[in-house]
Amino acid sequence: MKDVLQEIGFDEKEAEIYAILVKLDGASVTEIMKHTITERRSIYDVLERLVQKGRASFYEEQGRRVFNAIDPEVILEDLKEKQKKFEELIPKLKLPLTKTDAKVEILKGIPGLRSIFLDIIKEGKVHYVHGDISPLIYEEDYARVTVQFLASLKKKGLGEKVIYAKGDKITKIPNSEYKAIDKKFVLPVPTLIYGDVTTQYIYTRPITIIKITSKVVAKTNLEYFKVFWNMK
Question: Smallest Cα–Cα separation from 21: which of 52, 41, 4, 46?
Answer without folding.
Answer: 46
